[in-house]
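Lab meeting notes turned into a lecture example. A postdoc, R.K., suggested we walk through two folding results consecutively so the class can see how the record format repeats. The first protein's sequence and structure tokens come next.
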Amino acid sequence: MFMDRATYTDANKIEYFELSLKDGGPAAEWFKNLEEEKRLTWSALVTEFDERWPARQALVKSQEEKQEELKDARIMEAELGKKVTMKGVEVWMHIVWADKVQQLARAIPDNGNLLVSVARDNMAPSLRATVPPSNKTWDTFCKAVREVGTTELREKMAERKEAEQMKAELERMRSNPNRQPPPTPLKVAAAALDRMKLGPTIPAPNFGPVQTSNSTLQPTTTQNGQIMQTAYLAMVMKWHSNNPGAKAGTKVRPYPLTPGTAALGSGECTKCGMMGHFWESCTATPAAIIPPFESKWRCKVNSIRRTVNAPTTSVNVVNVDVNKLTEGELHQHLESFFSSQGKGQGSSD
């Protein structure tokens, strides 16, 4: 520092110090009002200055504070798919978050990777669904987060949004002042089945050739139609709950079909679920488009049915007294029913 040069006298140092002060600033006012004897020598001036303006000590965080900072590091659903500028470069928010938590983990340090699960819990649900839980070290976990593609992330966000909309619709129907809200989705579904007019038999899910059938599921009243829709939404929510991470239905976990749509695997449009046209020429309004999961399921079945010829079996739901079923039996019965019904052009696969 220039003040330490041996060639400078106390008077030189004091003069340079005074010149370095900002006019009208608090330090300049302090120096101006300082008693004469306290600024005659450089050492006396330094003593007075340090007493008036003590040096600030750098904050040293404890390990507990560092852990709390890591536990508070979250990335929200609304931040996904957005970019921020870091040192002049645009970076995806989930990559910025991964860099941050890894730095916090090293600062603790969490050499045993004990807090990886905490960081995972702090992830937005859509991001968490794209990162396998097998990444249990900070290096593999943060690497997996950084490698998440934006296309996959947007698909997960769309699926979550759809599930939330279904949940909101179910809650809206439950709170309908025109009827008594159902106690549980299962009881609602049981009431729907008990009041519907059903044909004699409904083909069970299969991947064989399309079987022609005129059996349809028709609500007897408008209220029953609401009950049926509520039951359908309940089954969709249950499917997503039982199949986290699944991208489409399968033969062992068929996706519930929208009431009023065509039979599964009947050559129907996989965009709206109706007959008479295909996806390319579909003019359905956004409200009439079936959920993405159902669309994928219909595409899959329509593709398989052209090459596989499996025998058809039947299941009769007419003679089932749903009011006498146990909770577990009712779950199984409803899953079978909704996976086999489109309700528009007869039974579905």
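The second example is placed directly after the first for contrast:
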Amino acid sequence: MKENQLAHRKEEKTLGDECQELLLSLPKERGWVTLPLYQYQGFWCPTPEVLQAIMAFQRHFQARDSDIVVASSPKCGTTWLKALIFAVVNRYRFDIETHPLVTSKSHKLVPFFDLDLYANNQVPDFSSFFEPRLFATRPYFFSFLGYNQRVQLFIAPSEAFDRYCMPRHGCIWSILGSHFGLLERLKRPNSVLFFKYEDMKIDIVCHLKTLTSFIDYSFTEEEERNSVIEDVAKLCSFETMKKLEINKTGMFVMNMENKYLFRKAAVGDWVNYFTPEMEERMSKLIEESLVAQA
């Protein structure tokens, strides 16, 4: 039996009665890297354990106006954005030379609600969290096409792509539009901020200014004169983080090694994975989904 299947069996044994009962009523599909996927509240959850964590989060979490939540799909610069958020918010607490990002993974410093805080039947105690509290989450039914060389797929990449594009699976662009952000951005422009990875790569200093202004942690004129923005950008850069020993060892989720979180950091590398036909199909799907949300 494959390692992921064994892990799935083990997860099921740790589920509470409420979650196990709910699973019986939910639509499910054969998973890509886990078995199976469950549809819950319009999203596809990768494991029963994640579903249980989501349920616990919805029941127990008490949000604060000052909370900062990083919400991103895999392979969209999550590790980088977590590092940037942590660095700018805590820039008065730590020196660059002894910064926690040198000795701790950004995923530990900005934990996921479902994969970390509420995982394994936990109800976290936030009393030790500094303000503002930093969290992270994912928009579910995400694509693992970019992981196919590092994580074992239970279906072929071509089939995964086909299923990703099927309406019943809830295209990620529709989810982002209707559930996850675009509408919320219109309703609450002071509470939701979108960044594009490609734009951040072009001008990280400008985006750091936008980010700090949005979360009310703007850089002072003195900090700008002393190149603090550039220091933060360098501390959190792909080149710096990839060289750190802490990011070369250990495991992330779904038995993926941490070192694979740092690959090329190249814009446009998708051309090496998509055929021209896939590119045309995906571009049309994205355009139709976003126009529908507009």
